[in-house]
Amino acid sequence: MERKLKVGLVGGTGMVGQRLMTLLQDHPWFEVTMVAASPGSAGKSYAEAVRDRWKMSQPLPERLAGLTVQNAERVSQLAEMVDLVFCAVSLPKAATGQMEEAFAKAETPVISCNSAHRLTPDVPMLIPEINPEHLALIDWQKKRLGTKNGFIAVKPNCSIQSFVPPLHALRELQPARVVASTYQAISGAGKTFADWPEMVDNVIPFIPGEEEKSEIEPLKIWGAVADGQIAYATAPVITTQCIRVPVTDGHLATVFVSFAKKPDRETILERWRSFQGRPQALGLPSAPRRFIHYFDEEDRPQTRLDRDFENGMGITVGRLRQDTLFDYKFVALSHNTLRGAAGGAVLIAELLRAEGYLSAKA
């Protein structure tokens, strides 16, 4: 592989941007050379811009602390500085979508952590182990945008990352109906307990937009590429509840599922044990060696104990048992700012590079 690709972080001062900064500081394929944020942060060093709001447990990467924060609104100027950008801005959806498309039209690929283009028909929304074939959309998207190299790829909402992978490993068994309730950490809202004290000793049974995303996004991920867009899957039928709980990191889901024909328990466990995806086959740097791990213990997975499985990039599952209304029920857990956000975006970029969709600008 040639030189490291030059990477820009747009929205680099927020929680997901900070996480991206820590993940990319020593990456073997990518090098952060530009960070951009709102005009209010522009002109400051990165260390200055995040001094009072660094939310990571790791220290600020010393090598990147001196980067001068650029104005994220100057898209054409920023696009000339890098080979690709990760976008994690906190803007209204329409403005985010316009910014991402502007970078793409400036021949700079965008890996987005935002929701603006998740349901855009020719934009691949990727969990790399599950739907790498959706990369085929990129050629169609380039035709629409009139670009040679520029495109957008996006990661799904963090709420679905716990329950979609274990269901995907069972797709050949034809899951037909799913009820999933997600118990989501406060970092999913970009918060810590220090800046959201109202969450201490509290549960909020509503997260705006999460249930709609949790029900429709899996059907795009499980859909098929047809004439330059995704024909959404029609099964399983999914209904969800999304609840904010007083946990720092980690989204846990309780899942009820019925199948077209009920499989035996050992068949389900074997599918989870043996499942591997394209990132594992390619040996991508951020790919977990084991994507899905099942715990036999009755009280696992636990958020604090298990969210960091495989450096936060693996999915843990437990408590598979028969149900009185559905065929089976189980519990699943993912790390929402790693697998569900920044880490998932980095893994998408690695897949794009390995499959020939990213290259250094001349």
In total, how many domains does the architecture comprise? 2
Query: Portion of residues in helices?
Result: 25-40%
Net shape? globular
What is the average per-residue confidence, as pLDDT, rounded to a whole number? 97
Proper CATH architecture of the largest domain: 2-Layer Sandwich
CATH topology of the largest domain: Dihydrodipicolinate Reductase, domain 2
Tally of alpha and pi helices: 11
Walk across the major sheet and give the strand order: 3-2-1-4-5-6
Helix-strand pattern, N to C?
Answer: EHEHEHEHEHEHEHEEEEHHEHEEH
Class from secondary-structure proportions: alpha/beta
Keywords: NADP, Oxidoreductase
Domain Semialdehyde dehydrogenase NAD-binding: 6-138
Protein name: Aspartate semialdehyde dehydrogenase
Pfam family, one: Semialdhyde_dhC
List keywords for this structure.
Rossmann fold, six-stranded parallel β-sheet, six-stranded mixed β-sheet, alpha/beta, Dihydrodipicolinate Reductase, domain 2, 11 helices, 2 domains, 362 residues
Protein architecture, described:
This protein has 362 residues and is of the alpha/beta class. The chain folds into two domains: 5-157 and 342-354, NAD(P)-binding Rossmann-like Domain (Rossmann fold, 3-Layer(aba) Sandwich); 159-334, 2-Layer Sandwich (Dihydrodipicolinate Reductase, domain 2), CATH 3.30.360. It contains eleven helices and 14 strands. Strands 3-2-1-4-5-6 form a six-stranded parallel β-sheet, sandwiched between helices. It is globular. The mean pLDDT is 97.
